[in-house]
Amino acid sequence: MDFLTFAKDRYSCRALSDRPVEPEKLERILAAALAAPTACNNQPFRVWVLQSPDALEKASHATRFTFGAPVILAVGGLPSEAWVRPFDGRNFAGVDAAIVATHLMLATHAEGLGTTWIGYFDAGQLKADFPEMAPYDMIALFPIGYPAPDAAPAKGHFACRPESQLIGRL
Ligand SMILES: Cc1cc2nc3c(=O)[nH]c(=O)nc-3n(C[C@H](O)[C@H](O)[C@H](O)COP(=O)(O)O)c2cc1C
Protein backbone atom coordinates (compact mmCIF):
# COMPACT_ATOMS: atom_id res chain seq x y z
CA MET A 1 0.00 0.00 0.00
CA ASP A 2 1.46 3.40 -0.89
CA PHE A 3 1.66 5.97 1.90
CA LEU A 4 -1.25 8.14 0.75
CA THR A 5 -3.58 5.13 0.55
CA PHE A 6 -2.34 3.96 3.95
CA ALA A 7 -2.84 7.42 5.53
CA LYS A 8 -6.37 7.65 4.13
CA ASP A 9 -7.16 4.12 5.28
CA ARG A 10 -6.44 5.00 8.93
CA TYR A 11 -9.37 6.19 11.00
CA SER A 12 -10.13 6.77 14.67
CA CYS A 13 -11.27 3.34 15.82
CA ARG A 14 -13.58 3.68 18.81
CA ALA A 15 -14.82 0.08 18.93
CA LEU A 16 -12.23 -2.44 20.06
CA SER A 17 -12.53 -6.17 20.65
CA ASP A 18 -11.09 -7.85 23.73
CA ARG A 19 -8.65 -9.91 21.63
CA PRO A 20 -5.20 -9.51 23.19
CA VAL A 21 -2.51 -7.58 21.35
CA GLU A 22 0.51 -9.73 20.54
CA PRO A 23 3.64 -8.53 22.38
CA GLU A 24 5.66 -8.41 19.14
CA LYS A 25 3.12 -6.04 17.59
CA LEU A 26 3.35 -3.78 20.62
CA GLU A 27 7.15 -3.85 20.42
CA ARG A 28 7.06 -2.78 16.74
CA ILE A 29 4.72 0.08 17.61
CA LEU A 30 7.08 1.21 20.36
CA ALA A 31 10.06 0.91 18.00
CA ALA A 32 8.24 3.26 15.61
CA ALA A 33 7.95 5.76 18.47
CA LEU A 34 11.69 5.57 19.05
CA ALA A 35 12.29 6.24 15.34
CA ALA A 36 10.50 9.61 15.50
CA PRO A 37 12.52 12.74 14.84
CA THR A 38 12.75 15.36 17.59
CA ALA A 39 14.19 18.86 17.60
CA CYS A 40 18.00 18.67 17.96
CA ASN A 41 17.41 14.97 18.64
CA ASN A 42 16.81 15.83 22.30
CA GLN A 43 14.14 13.09 22.56
CA PRO A 44 12.31 14.89 25.37
CA PHE A 45 9.46 12.40 25.57
CA ARG A 46 8.29 9.30 27.30
CA VAL A 47 5.75 6.67 26.34
CA TRP A 48 4.11 4.64 29.10
CA VAL A 49 2.61 1.25 28.34
CA LEU A 50 -0.47 0.72 30.47
CA GLN A 51 -1.37 -2.93 30.37
CA SER A 52 -1.90 -4.26 33.88
CA PRO A 53 -5.49 -4.34 35.17
CA ASP A 54 -4.47 -1.76 37.79
CA ALA A 55 -2.95 0.63 35.23
CA LEU A 56 -5.92 0.28 32.85
CA GLU A 57 -8.30 0.96 35.71
CA LYS A 58 -6.35 4.09 36.66
CA ALA A 59 -6.43 5.32 33.04
CA SER A 60 -10.20 5.02 33.11
CA HIS A 61 -10.28 7.49 36.03
CA ALA A 62 -8.83 10.14 33.70
CA THR A 63 -11.01 9.57 30.63
CA ARG A 64 -14.09 7.75 29.49
CA PHE A 65 -12.43 7.14 26.11
CA THR A 66 -10.72 3.82 26.76
CA PHE A 67 -12.99 1.59 24.66
CA GLY A 68 -12.10 -1.45 26.78
CA ALA A 69 -8.64 -1.54 25.21
CA PRO A 70 -6.21 -4.20 26.42
CA VAL A 71 -3.34 -1.71 26.07
CA ILE A 72 -3.22 2.05 26.45
CA LEU A 73 -0.16 4.09 25.51
CA ALA A 74 0.29 7.43 27.26
CA VAL A 75 2.57 10.02 25.64
CA GLY A 76 4.16 13.00 27.32
CA GLY A 77 6.75 15.64 26.44
CA LEU A 78 9.29 16.97 28.93
CA PRO A 79 9.74 20.73 28.51
CA SER A 80 12.89 20.86 30.65
CA GLU A 81 14.70 18.60 28.14
CA ALA A 82 13.32 20.04 24.90
CA TRP A 83 14.94 22.34 22.39
CA VAL A 84 13.98 25.98 22.85
CA ARG A 85 14.02 28.17 19.76
CA PRO A 86 16.27 31.13 20.58
CA PHE A 87 14.40 33.70 18.48
CA ASP A 88 11.17 33.53 20.44
CA GLY A 89 11.77 31.11 23.32
CA ARG A 90 9.36 28.54 21.92
CA ASN A 91 9.66 25.17 23.66
CA PHE A 92 9.30 22.18 21.30
CA ALA A 93 8.43 19.45 23.85
CA GLY A 94 4.80 19.31 22.72
CA VAL A 95 5.75 19.25 19.05
CA ASP A 96 8.26 16.44 19.61
CA ALA A 97 5.76 14.43 21.65
CA ALA A 98 3.14 14.91 18.94
CA ILE A 99 5.49 13.50 16.28
CA VAL A 100 6.13 10.48 18.50
CA ALA A 101 2.39 10.12 19.01
CA THR A 102 1.76 10.28 15.27
CA HIS A 103 4.33 7.54 14.67
CA LEU A 104 2.58 5.42 17.31
CA MET A 105 -0.81 6.03 15.76
CA LEU A 106 0.29 5.13 12.23
CA ALA A 107 2.35 2.14 13.38
CA THR A 108 -0.72 0.84 15.20
CA HIS A 109 -2.67 0.99 11.96
CA ALA A 110 0.19 -0.71 10.11
CA GLU A 111 -0.09 -3.63 12.55
CA GLY A 112 -3.77 -4.09 11.69
CA LEU A 113 -4.80 -2.71 15.07
CA GLY A 114 -7.12 0.16 15.87
CA THR A 115 -6.67 3.23 18.02
CA THR A 116 -7.82 6.81 18.52
CA TRP A 117 -5.73 9.76 19.57
CA ILE A 118 -7.35 10.73 22.88
CA GLY A 119 -6.81 14.30 24.00
CA TYR A 120 -9.90 14.42 26.21
CA PHE A 121 -8.49 13.30 29.53
CA ASP A 122 -7.92 14.84 32.93
CA ALA A 123 -4.14 15.23 33.02
CA GLY A 124 -4.21 16.13 36.71
CA GLN A 125 -6.06 12.92 37.54
CA LEU A 126 -3.67 10.92 35.36
CA LYS A 127 -0.68 12.40 37.19
CA ALA A 128 -2.30 11.75 40.56
CA ASP A 129 -2.59 8.07 39.64
CA PHE A 130 0.79 7.90 37.86
CA PRO A 131 3.19 10.22 39.73
CA GLU A 132 6.00 9.41 37.24
CA MET A 133 4.06 11.46 34.66
CA ALA A 134 4.01 14.60 36.84
CA PRO A 135 6.82 16.56 35.12
CA TYR A 136 5.51 15.76 31.63
CA ASP A 137 3.15 17.63 29.38
CA MET A 138 0.76 14.73 28.78
CA ILE A 139 -0.51 15.12 25.24
CA ALA A 140 -2.19 11.85 24.27
CA LEU A 141 -3.59 8.51 25.27
CA PHE A 142 -3.91 5.73 22.71
CA PRO A 143 -6.26 2.86 23.58
CA ILE A 144 -5.03 0.07 21.32
CA GLY A 145 -6.69 -3.18 20.32
CA TYR A 146 -8.12 -5.17 17.46
CA PRO A 147 -11.03 -3.38 15.82
CA ALA A 148 -14.41 -4.83 16.85
CA PRO A 149 -16.37 -6.49 14.01
CA ASP A 150 -18.66 -3.46 13.79
CA ALA A 151 -15.87 -0.85 13.94
CA ALA A 152 -16.18 1.89 11.33
CA PRO A 153 -15.05 5.46 10.80
CA ALA A 154 -17.25 8.13 12.40
CA LYS A 155 -18.88 10.78 10.23
CA GLY A 156 -16.16 13.25 11.21
CA HIS A 157 -13.56 11.11 9.49
CA PHE A 158 -14.94 12.16 6.13
CA ALA A 159 -15.30 15.87 6.88
CA CYS A 160 -12.61 17.94 5.24
CA ARG A 161 -12.41 21.68 4.75
CA PRO A 162 -11.75 22.87 1.22
CA GLU A 163 -8.13 22.47 0.23
CA SER A 164 -7.85 26.22 -0.35
CA GLN A 165 -8.40 26.78 3.40
CA LEU A 166 -5.78 24.23 4.42
CA ILE A 167 -2.99 24.65 1.92
CA GLY A 168 -1.60 28.07 1.06
CA ARG A 169 0.17 28.18 -2.26
CA LEU A 170 2.30 31.31 -2.32
C1 LIG B 1 -5.01 16.03 19.22
C2 LIG B 1 -6.22 15.13 19.02
C3 LIG B 1 -7.08 14.90 20.08
C4 LIG B 1 -8.16 14.03 19.93
N1 LIG B 1 -8.95 13.74 21.03
C5 LIG B 1 -9.96 12.85 20.88
C6 LIG B 1 -10.73 12.46 22.02
O1 LIG B 1 -10.46 12.86 23.15
N2 LIG B 1 -11.76 11.59 21.83
C7 LIG B 1 -12.06 11.07 20.59
O2 LIG B 1 -13.00 10.27 20.50
N3 LIG B 1 -11.34 11.43 19.50
C8 LIG B 1 -10.29 12.29 19.61
N4 LIG B 1 -9.53 12.62 18.53
C9 LIG B 1 -9.84 12.02 17.22
C10 LIG B 1 -10.41 13.06 16.25
O3 LIG B 1 -11.72 13.36 16.63
C11 LIG B 1 -10.35 12.46 14.85
O4 LIG B 1 -9.01 12.25 14.50
C12 LIG B 1 -11.00 13.36 13.81
O5 LIG B 1 -12.38 13.48 14.04
C13 LIG B 1 -10.81 12.82 12.39
O6 LIG B 1 -11.31 11.50 12.29
P1 LIG B 1 -10.38 10.28 11.89
O7 LIG B 1 -9.25 10.17 12.89
O8 LIG B 1 -11.28 9.07 11.92
O9 LIG B 1 -9.85 10.57 10.52
C14 LIG B 1 -8.43 13.45 18.66
C15 LIG B 1 -7.56 13.69 17.60
C16 LIG B 1 -6.46 14.50 17.77
C17 LIG B 1 -5.50 14.69 16.62
Describe this protein's structure.
A 3-stranded antiparallel β-sheet has the order 1-2-5. The protein has a single domain (about 20-145), classed as NADH Oxidase (3-Layer(aba) Sandwich). The longest helix has 18 residues, at about 95-110. It is α+β, with helices and mostly antiparallel strands. The protein has helices spanning about 5-10, 25-35, 55-60, 95-110, 125-130, 165; strands at about 45-50, 70-75, 85, 90, 135-145. The protein contains 6 helices and 5 strands; from the N terminus they run ααβαβββααβα. The chain is globular, with a radius of gyration of 17 Å. The protein binds flavin mononucleotide. Flavin mononucleotide binds near residues 65, 116, 118, 156 and 157. Flavin mononucleotide binds next to loops.
Write the layout of secondary structure elements.
Blueprint: H1 3-9, H2 23-34, E1 45-50, H3 53-62, E2 71-77, E3 84-85, E4 90-91, H4 93-110, H5 123-129, E5 137-144, H6 163-166
Antiparallel strand pairs: 1-2, 2-5, 3-4
Helix pairs in contact: 2-4, 3-5
The chain binds flavin mononucleotide (FMN).
The site of flavin mononucleotide has 13 residues, from loops.
Kindly list the characteristics that best describe this protein.
NADH Oxidase; alpha+beta; 3-stranded antiparallel sheet; binds flavin mononucleotide; two-stranded antiparallel ribbon
What's a quick, concise take on this entry?
The chain is α+β, with helices and mostly antiparallel strands. Helix content is 34%, strand content 15%.
